[in-house]
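Message: Study each token:
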Amino acid sequence: MKKFEFKAVGLHCNNCVKRVHAILSEHYGENETMVQLSPPKVTISSMEKPQVNDLNKLLSDYGDYQLESI
């Protein structure tokens, strides 16, 4: 597995971190997803690099969260 990092826009508090982690964990697994507030970043462990557009579609229904490639 490889680790892929993304800049997380829209994370303002620990509740945001928990929400984004829960959403992404449903698709990538609890142990394969890490979300941190400072600096705002998401790390996903996967065999293939997740597509930013796909990740943002997952998040779009839950708030103004956006991921960007680093």
